[in-house]
Design brief:
Blueprint (H helix, E strand, L loop, with lengths): L1 E4 H6 L1 H10 L2 E5 L2 E6 L2 H24 L8 H17 L1
Protein name: Antitoxin
Family: Belongs to the phD/YefM antitoxin family.
Function: Antitoxin component of a type II toxin-antitoxin (TA) system.
Amino acid sequence: MKTISATTASKEFGRFLDAAQREPVLLTKKDRPVAVTVSVADWEELTALRIERGITEGLADAAAGRAAELTDAALEQRLARFRGRSAEQ
């Protein structure tokens, strides 16, 4: 993975974008990693993989009995707890 400082990325933005199309680019600020930039195609692939993993885990939970139907009443209870926590903050 290519590494580039935020200052260099700012000064040479076109080159930075071109590099991100070929491979992920690690951005650093004061020699610390702060972000990774990827191409749109890589982002779409990563997003699809995350969705697929979530579906697979959800199906496994359902098959193992770790899922329950979310009724209107249960949803209202969860919303009430959430609203109560939000009011406390």
